[in-house]
Write a structure and sequence with these properties.
This protein is an alpha+beta fold. The chain has ten helices and nine strands. It starts with 5 loop residues before the first strand and ends with a strand. Keywords: ATP-binding, Kinase, Nucleotide-binding, Transferase. This is Mevalonate kinase.
Length: 309
């Protein structure tokens, strides 16, 4: 048995900001994916996944049935039979490994589920987001529900505010384009929960709250607008500002060995780095106006191009 594939995602803009109602833009990243699978003889890795699914099933039993109902008996019997989540999505890398798993479980075991083929009204999108938020909280302590939503629908999602989200189109890829979005591998696994805790602690300080509102959210919103409208010049101007703000105010979320490189990108204008997900490790997201030049400068790092434009 093997279920349908669910893809990883990249939040291009909006990390941390969306907690405080900034805009956000999330796109599917088809390079990585996962699916539910069943085997009798489980490898060490598959057994770990199977054990985790067991705990997840118990957690799902406690979710308010007025929000979502699952066929828990069927789920548990499949887990007993050796079901696990077979995934190429790296964990702790900010590309939605738990999101894909949540989407797969909802797809297979939710009763009266909202399907991808329906006319996805804003109400339905918000309902799905609320369900996924509740489900994914098992993994992160607090989840916006966006990662599973993106994985489930496999289309770009524009977050206008907490209760205003819509499926969107993004400018089509230009494979020849020199402008690019890329991922850098930090070589470290990041954990979401501790990073979110640091952020919430910082939010208690008035200075940090003001910076978030007046600078971080302002430039995040502008980046989303610029990207969707194809205002390339303005996009890079705002991304540079965003990169600076993150370096100055989100240092704990940037692995220490990348602080200098981050600064170098801003000073040389060759590339601008930003957090991919909650940070603390995993991938770092990069934007450049000249991907070939950036590749040369970053030749010591593992770089994956996500999108050319």
């Amino acid at each position: 048995m093997k279920g349908p594939l669910f893809y990883s995602k990249i939040l291009l803009f909006g990390e941390y900001g969306i907690i405080k109602d900034s805009k956000g833009l999330s796109i599917p990243y088809n390079y990585y994916n996962g699916a539910l699978k069943t085997e009798e003889n489980l490898s060490e890795l598959s057994r770990k996944s199977n054990q985790s699914l067991k705990r997840f099933a118990e957690y799902l039993e406690g979710i308010d049935e007025s929000l979502v109902r699952f066929d828990i008996q069927l789920l548990k019997s499949h887990i007993e039979g050796g079901m696990y989540f077979d995934s190429s999505i790296p964990q702790g890398y900010g590309v939605g490994s738990s999101g894909a798993l949540v989407a797969a479980i909802y797809d297979k075991y939710a009763k009266d589920k909202i399907t991808v083929l329906e006319n996805l009204t804003r109400e339905k999108l918000l309902k799905l987001k609320a369900i996924f938020s509740e489900m994914e909280s098992f993994f992160h302590g607090k989840s916006s529900g966006l990662d599973p939503l993106n994985s489930y629908l496999s289309i770009p999602i524009l977050i206008n505010s907490k209760d205003n989200i819509e499926a969107t189109g993004i400018p089509s890829q230009n494979v020849e384009g020199k402008n690019a979005v890329f991922l850098l591998d930090s070589g470290i696994i990041g954990e979401t929960a501790p990073m979110v805790r640091i952020f919430m602690e910082n939010m208690k300080q008035e200075g940090f709250r003001n910076m978030l509102k007046d600078q971080f959210i302002k430039h995040t919103d502008a980046c989303v607008e610029d990207f969707l409208k194809g205002n390339i010049k303005s996009l890079f101007k705002n991304t540079k500002q965003l990169s600076k703000i993150v370096l100055n105010n989100f240092k704990p979320m940037i692995p220490i060995q990348f602080h200098e490189l981050w600064k170098k990108g801003i000073e040389s204008n060759e590339f601008y780095l930003k957090l991919c997900g909650s940070g603390g490790g995993g991938y770092i997201l990069g934007f450049t106006e000249d991907i070939e030049k950036a590749k040369k400068t970053l030749s010591d790092y593992k770089l994956e191009v996500v999108y050319n434009f």
